[in-house]
Amino acid sequence: MNQGARSSEACRGRQAHRGLQASRGLQAYRGLQAYRGLQSRGFTLVELLAVVTIMGVLATIAIYSMRKYIQHAKTSEATEIVAAIKAGEEAYYDETFRYLSFSVANVATDFYPDTPTNASGQIKIQWGTPNGASNCTACGTRLRALGVLPAAPVLFRYSGAIGASGDTPSSRMSSYVGGPSPPFGATVATQPFYVINAISDLDGDSGTMTAVVGSNLMGDLYSSNVGE
Question: Which residues pair with residue 162 across a beta bridge?
Fold first, then answer.
C-alpha cells in the first residue's frame, strides 16, 4: 500500500471516530434533556389525590393509636388503686377475719369520691373526704382504714362490696361494667369475697364506660372498654 492510500485510510478512520464521538455526544445531550424534563415535570392530579389519601389514612391511624395510648395511660390510675384496695382488704382480713365493705349499705352503687357520669373522665376529684359525694356514707373513712390514700385527684370512681359463701359475686359488680362478666370462677361463691369496681367515662361519649374490676376470686384484674 502506497503512502497516498495509507493517508486516505487514516483520514477515513479519523472521520469515523469523529462521527462516533458526535453520535455519543448527541445521545448524552438527549439523555440530559430528558432527565431535566423529568425533573421539571409537576405532579398530576391523580398523583396528588393518591398522596392526600395516603396521608389521610396515616393521620387517622395515628390519631386512633394516640387516643388508645392515652386511655391506657389513664387506666393505670384505676389499676394501681384497685390493686392497693385488694392489698388493704387482704391485710384487713388477716386481722379481723372478714372483709370491709366501702359503704354501710354494702352495695355496688355507692361510689367514692363521686358517682360516675359522662364527665367523670374529664374531671378529677380529690381523694380524702369521709363520705362520697353520692350516698357513699363513710366510704372515705373505710378506705382510709384499708390504707388507701391516693395523694393525687382521681379520674375513676370506686365502689366495693363484700359477700359470703353462697352469695353471687356478680351481684356485687357495678352495672356500669360492660362486656362479658368477669371470670369469678363460679356463679355462687364458696368463700368470703369482695368485688371492687373502678368506673370512668374516659372518652366522654356517654356510652359504655371504662371499667376495671378486682376481686379475691380472680387472679388478675378485669378491664373492659379500655381504648376501644
Answer: 194
